[in-house]
Amino acid sequence: MKKIILAALMLIVLLLMASCTPKEKHVCTFSPEIECSDDAFYHKCECGETSEHIHEWEETVVKKATCDADGESKRECKTCGATETAVIEKYTEHKLKGYIQIKPQCESEGKERIYCEYCNYSEVKTIPPTGHTLVTRQEVAPTCIKTGRKEYQECVNCDYHTASEVIPTVDHEYENGKCISCSAPEPRDYMKFVYYYFTGNIGVEFSKPCPTELVIPKYTYNRELVTSLVPLENFKNVEKIVFENKELETLFARTFKGCTNLREIELPNAVELGERCFQDCDSLVSIKLPDSVQTLGEYCFLECDKLKTIEFSKNLKTIKASAFDRCYELETIILPDGLETLGNSVFSGCTGLVKVVIPESITEMGSSVFSGCTSLIDVQLPAYMRVVPSSTFSDCTSLEQVTLPITSHHLEDGVFRGCTSLKNVTLGKDTLTIGAYSFENCSSLEKLSLPKRVHTIGDNAFVNCTNLKEIVFEGTISEWENISIGKGVFDNTSLTKIICSDGTVNL
Asked: Which domains, ranges and CATH numbers included, belong to the chain?
């Protein structure tokens, strides 16, 4: 029974739930029309609700205010488009600015333009002169080469100055031959200055008689720089020379030629020593060339009979022809690295020369460079030397042995002509030609090895080599027979055959 009652109650509850529908919630729908207030705008719903928004104003100036009239501004809401206008009140006073049109000077007025930022008002004002700003310049004492002046005043802003009285120069004060203040030389009867107007150079010229110790001044009597020396050719009494101007760039041709008693000289930093510069300076024993020297001219030290030692410039590039020809007392020559050119007969006739070292830097060598060096026994040639020039060692009668560079290709005419003591010669393996008379009169030469690449032997190449008994040719008999052999090559020798790699050739 209880179960029936409970089921009936549940059915009643379900029927009640099915028949009850809840009320739906209202959703506002706002009208697109806009209504505005002072600070906001809004939309309305049919239910009476509103949607309010704050204006987003964007303001512009329609007309600027000036000092004479009001202006106007306008603002517009960027969202709803509502607009408002407002008055911009005119300015009660000018806002002035200015700039300088003309700067005032010590004695002249300036101009300044004044203008208002708000209106068209402007005017030009006068700026009075600034007046001079004077400083006192102290008195300057005169020297022997420059005038002085009295005390005066000058303006720091312009060229105005009070009167300035010039004080004349004072006399030179000489001590030891020159002024103690300016170093100008003391006037001498034997010395004058030469002006070369076309070049702008100033030279010093000496006349005889002059002192045995000669000072070449740096300045003229008026303290102008001396730039050259007029040659002292045949000034036989001069024993010592000193240059005050170490920057003298050139010593001209024959500058000291024939100064037979010159024993000591301090050279300037010259770049070149000219032709015959020291020729016949018979008393000169030694000399040091400044590192500025790059060129020695032709016959520069020709027949300097007593010259024993020379210290070369580290920057020497060129020694021209016969520069040391017949310097009989020279014993050892070590030429500097960097030397590029040796001219013809540079050391020809240097009969006291024993040793020579030629640097690797040599690119050009003339003929007869050591011709007639009768005491020469030690020669060091550069490793790279394609041509041994003609008569290089002719009549070097003490030379016993020579090793030619491995790279040498050509022996020109007469290279060892008259080398009567020569016993051993090592030719470069790439030797191609042996010039005419190359070994003429080499009477001590007994044996010689010829490289297989030799293709030419010139006329009389071995003539009068009276003790030459053996020549070994590194090539074959066939290769020997293809060599171009000149006339009289083996005349007056002891040679009867040529030894080749595959047999002998009878002569």
From this structure: 109-171 (no CATH), 231-380 (3.80.10.10), 383-507 (3.80.10)
